[in-house]
Amino acid sequence: MEALQKVVNNKIQAANPKTLPKQPGQATYINYTPSQQGSQYNSGAKQRIIKMQDMPVDPMEPPKFRHKKVPKPGGSPPVPVMHSPPRA
After folding, report:
1. Quick check: helix, strand or coil at residue 18?
2. pTM of the model
């Protein structure tokens, strides 16, 4: 019975993904007081509450940076080209 349970547990663990994409964490709230006060600025609000939260990562999004291939450094200097002597 224990052997069967062990086999079933191994199958279940193999079906579950090992690494899940990072989900956004807890939101943090920030009190923001604008430097310009007045009814014509900021809709007349003296203070705002801003909710900061991490955006979830889209696994299907294309890469943001492009990898460039760097040429291999040359081992020895190039062979000199042998020309015939100039004609007179």
Report:
1. coil
2. 0.37
